[in-house]
Amino acid sequence: LISSATKSLRMEMEILEKKLQDAQMKVAEKDGDKEKEIQGLKRLISELEFQLTMEKSNNESFLDKLRKEIKHKSDELEKLTQEKTQLIHSLSQVQEENSVLQDTVRRECEERFELTAALGRAREQVLELRRLSGALP
């Protein structure tokens, strides 16, 4: 009976050892799969980090270009604003000069009109004098 129980226990022990080995193999296999998955995820993380670094670099380069363009446009705007101010000043001077010239022309026209009228009166007086002098010996 003891021998039979011992034999039965040994068989049960062998079965349990086989189940333990199978379980250990499955755990080792799962560990290997998990390790492969971890390595794949690490590779993916590295690739994504590289892409992120490249995107950051591209964005910084793009921002630098935009900053330079904004600076250039700002300088150009400032230059154009100064030119506009100078042109407005020049226009003001030209308008003032034009006003002075118009006033001068107006005064000269008035003088000419007065001189023309005086000349007309003088002619009439000369004609009157001639007529009068023609009547006198």
How is this structure best described in words?
- With 137 residues, the chain is an all-alpha fold.
- 98% of the residues lie in helices and 0% in strands.
- The chain is rod-shaped.
- The model has no long low-confidence stretch (mean pLDDT 95).
Topology order in helix (H) and strand (E) letters: H
What amount of the residues lies in strands?
A: under 5%
Put simply, the count of helices is 1
Helix content: over 70%
What is the arithmetic mean of pLDDT? 95
Structural class: mainly alpha
Shape summary:
rod-shaped
Unreliable runs: none
Radius of gyration: 57 Å
Distance linking N and C termini: 196 Å
Major sheet attributes: none
Tell me the total number of β-strands.
Answer: 0
Features:
137 residues, mainly alpha, 1 helix, 0% strand, LEKR1 protein, LEKR1, coiled coil
